[in-house]
Amino acid sequence: MWQNFTQSARKAILAAREEARQMRSSQVDTEHLLLVLVREDDDVKAMLDGIGVNVEDVFMTLKSRQSKPSSEPTDEPRLSPRLKRALALAADEARKTISHCIGTIHLFLGLLQDKEWTIAPLLADACKRARQEVGGSGLGYWFLQQARQEAMKYTVPETIEGSGEAQAVVERIARVTREIGVSFSLMTRKALVRAADKALMANSDAIEFEHLVEAVNELEIASRMETMQEELEPLREAIDELERNFRQDKQD
């Protein structure tokens, strides 16, 4: 399963293990991973900011909740059952968002659904919008829905065809545009990934305008073909029905 995580997600999990080791904890738990994500991951911090959560407040609350390191030596910390369940939920979230790998955003979505150690109240304390819009009993669901909506801005769907290198190029571009409050639509991402692949195949050091034009034209043709297939489907069904009736008449 480890190979299904993005490099950023792997680093976050390893950093969480280091947090647990420094605290001399025998297990890497959900709070260790959450602390790392809100401290170090730009996508998670941007997503929380988009929802209206004060990330600094969340981080300070997490730090204040940490217990003092144990004086007793411990073995290498292992993933707790609770964190394992959160990672499994993160994998489910990646599948739901049609993403090719489990990223840090999916890790956060998995943590958000942990039934034993809910982070919704902690987030609510740092989110005026949540306190205004939602009652206490609905906080978990509200944050999950808001986070899923924000997650679409930071995850690359698997339906985008293209090399891993091209997808990485587009993700870097998307990261820059997010800093000024602009996100790409799914179709724009598809076009950019195709254009980046064309630039790579041409050994070009830039995505030229003609690469983008070719990519857009190809996507338009593919979209039209898809529409034609949908329009032809009722006709195929009618022909199949006629054929079945014809065979039935012959048998009678």
Q: Key features?
A:
mainly alpha; Double Clp-N motif
Reported for the largest beta sheet, the result is: 2 strands, parallel
Examine the coordinates and then state which fold CATH places here, giving the name of the CATH topology of the largest domain.
Double Clp-N motif
Which percent band covers the strand fraction? under 5%
Global geometry: extended
Radius of gyration over all CA atoms, rounded: 24 Å
- Tell me the CATH superfamily of the largest domain: Clp, N-terminal domain
Give a count of the beta strands, DSSP E runs of length 2 or more. 2
- Examine the secondary-structure arrangement and name the CATH architecture of the largest domain: Orthogonal Bundle
Please write the CATH class name of the largest domain. Answer: Mainly Alpha
Helix/strand order: HEHHHEHHHHHHHH
Mean of all residue-level pLDDT scores = 76
Cα distance spanning the termini: 57 Å
Explain this structure to me?
There is one protein chain. The chain has helices at 7-22, 30-40, 42-51, 55-65, 81-96, 104-112, 120-125, 128-133, 139-151, 164-178, 186-201, 209-251, and strands at 27-28, 78-79. With 252 residues, the protein is an all-alpha fold. It folds into two domains: 2-155, Clp, N-terminal domain (Double Clp-N motif); 159-252, no CATH class. Helix 2 (30-40) runs antiparallel to helix 4 (55-65) and helix 6 runs antiparallel to helix 9. The longest helix has 43 residues, at 209-251.
